[in-house]
Amino acid sequence: MGCCAIDEFDKIGSEHNSLLEAMEQQSISIAKGGLVCSLPARTSVIAAANPAGGHYNKAKTVSENLKINSALLSRFDLIFILLDRPDAEMDRFLSEHVMALHSGSKITPGSATTSNSQYSRQAAVDSESEANTSSFKEQLLVQPGESIDPIPAGLLRKYVAYARKYVHPRLSPEATQKLKEFYLELRRSHRAIDSTPITTRQLEALVRLAEARARAELRVLVTEDDANNVIEIMRYSLFQTYEDEDGVMDFDRSQMGTGVSNTSELKRFVAKLHRISEETYNNMFTFSMMHTIANEMGLRFTNFNDV
User: Fold this and answer.
1) Most CB within 10 Å of its CB: which of 42, 47, 173, 175?
2) CA distance 245 to 275
3) β-strand partners of 4
4) Where are any strands of DSSP class E within 104-246?
């Protein structure tokens, strides 16, 4: 039990298959020097990858951008796409943070201030009341000038180790109902003709995230608020993954956005028509002929006027 952080995940190359066994079966098989054994590998994996060419193309899926095996990519519960977009507030915050690191100062004008004192009882009550009225994303944002109390690294390490070993949350009836309703809503809203991008893997991910949310506060019962927070995170991840270049949710892609984008399907279809045209010396195709060719290729186009 631990946390495995991987940088430059897209540079691993041929070692993806080894990671697939560890993330799928939670074990690693070793056969070296006449020794054959299987070792447990239960850990949380946090990976960061760069898109091919240094630019993320929203017209392509996550798998196509990162050049990573879709089977391995689908093993991650959450996928977040970090795009470098101009933002005056965020740019100012990052510049102050970088300059503070190089200058040795801890507090910069306009940034969040730190405090080593304990939170008062009244402050805890106020923060709890604000958490009940604001979204989970707003609760995580640090406002300029806000006083925060950072946890020392050593204490945080002991806290995480204690939570992993001694805290084992279980779902409450309210949280179970909330997660089930969200999963059924996704299945019902995004069902395609031949398949659906939402599978039981998303439901299992919701359960794991909800338990982790309660474990972070050393609680043995997953509440409805924990379920709501997890649902908000999952919605955000799904929106980023399935959003195309026009800002439209493209749920024709397979699970976790690891399938083939519509752009690639169109290129395959046009290339097929071009090959048939060269073989038959005929560059005229009726709608019926194009429907037949698309069905043979396993493609589903409802309106060829848009193609």
Assistant:
1) 175
2) 29
3) 45
4) 113-114, 147-148, 170-171, 221-222
Whether residue 238 contacts residue 205, with contact meaning beta carbons closer than 8 Å, is answered with no
Strand 27-32 relative to strand 35-40: parallel, antiparallel, unpaired? antiparallel
Grouped pLDDT means (10 residues each) for the chain, 307 residues: 82 73 80 84 85 81 81 84 84 86 64 45 46 71 74 90 91 94 83 61 90 93 93 85 61 50 68 83 80 76 58
Count of H-run helices and E-run strands, the chain: 12, 8
Give SS3 for 170: strand
Per the DSSP assignment, residues forming a β-bridge with 39 are 28
- 50 class by beta-carbon count within 10 Å (0-12 exposed, 13-18 middle, 19+ buried): middle
C-alpha neighbours within 13 Å on the C-beta side of residue 54: 0
As a whole number of angstroms, the distance between CA 242 and CA 261 comes to: 10
